[in-house]
Specification:
By secondary structure, the protein is mainly alpha-helical. The protein has one domain (about 5-295): Farnesyl Diphosphate Synthase (Orthogonal Bundle). The chain has 16 helices and two strands. A hairpin with a 2-residue loop joins strand 1 and strand 2 (about 100). Helix 4 packs antiparallel against helix 10 (about 185-195). Pfam families: polyprenyl_synt. Belongs to the FPP/GGPP synthase family.
Length: about 300
């Protein structure tokens, strides 16, 4: 697997940023404050891993990154950013730092931050409705993403479990449920939606879903470990928050060394799901490998 993953991620991020620049109203567009807030958080330096996963999943199915998929990637990044804005609010994680910059509510106030998150979510679905793929694929993508953001095994449901678990003794079952929903669901659906955009069959979708579930869980396990082992400057957000707020995390249940082994094993299992695609899946595999080897 000879893929330059840094170049691959950089090019995917640039493609996504160009789409986001065109799709999110300028800070000069009235009402200025909310558009400024949306842009503040969206262009705060994210790695664009979810759009890149969608692009590489599409390349796994189609053999190359299809035209127009950058808008799908942009919509996924809008949804991810909306979740971060809301997650940082005083009522949730109460964080002042995100990607090395002041969080949205610190920079613009709570009211505008809440509305900026809402606006990014609605704009994302507006963008998804106009995707350049067959109407049946568009409808399927919208349904999959809406489900992944929702309350049953989706991101919002995971956030609720996370909030309600604070201060309680974490169990393996609780931690896995939170991770698969809060973070894993959007990663999984990024992979699956990219495949659907590229014309994936039901069998392809099942394989991509397996890959996405395992890679998404590995990503969050690594995130938990980094929160405990890396300082705030390197992490780009407040380090040690999970421990300070008694969050249900993988290391809290299994310890750091076992957590690192579990993440590596999950990536190997994720790779196995892509075996039928041979070298066409090299890009997707390289991004997944990056997820567990990153240091911030």
């Amino acid at each position: 697997m000879s893929v330059d993953v840094k170049t691959l991620i950089h090019e995917g991020a640039e493609l996504t940023d160009r789409a986001l620049e065109a799709l999110i109203p300028s800070a000069e567009t009235v009402p200025n404050s909310i558009h400024g807030a949306m842009r503040h958080s969206t262009f705060a330096g994210g790695k664009r891993l979810r759009p890149v996963l969608a692009m590489q999943a599409a390349a796994t199915i189609a053999g190359s990154v299809p035209r127009g998929i950058e808008n799908l990637g942009a919509a996924l990044e809008m949804l991810h950013t909306y979740s971060l804005i809301h997650d940082d609010l005083p009522a949730l994680d109460n964080d002042d730092l995100r990607r090395g910059k002041p969080t949205c509510h610190v920079a613009f106030g709570e009211a505008i931050a809440i509305l900026a998150g809402d606006a990014l979510q609605t704009r994302a679905f507006e963008v998804l409705a106009g995707l350049e793929c067959p109407p049946a694929s568009t409808v399927k993508i919208i349904g999959l993403i809406a489900n992944a953001v929702g309350t049953v095994d989706g991101m919002i449901g995971g956030q609720v479990l996370d909030i309600e678990s604070e201060g309680k003794k974490p169990t393996p079952e609780l931690v896995e449920a939170i991770h698969r929903a809060k973070t894993g669901a959007l990663i999984r659906v990024s992979v699956v939606a990219g495949g659907v955009f590229a014309g994936a069959t039901d069998e392809d979708v099942a394989r991509l879903d397996t890959f996405g579930r395992k890679a998404g869980l590995a990503f969050q396990i690594v995130d938990d470990v980094l929160d405990m082992t890396v300082d705030s400057a390197q992490l780009g957000k407040t380090a040690g928050k999970d421990l300070a707020t008694e969050k249900a995390t993988w290391p809290a249940v299994y310890g750091i060394e076992q957590s690192e082994r579990d993440a590596a094993a999950l990536i190997e299992e994720a790779f196995a799901a892509l075996a039928p695609y041979g070298s066409r899946a090299d890009g997707l595999k390289s991004v997944a490998q990056y997820l567990v080897e990153r240091k911030n």
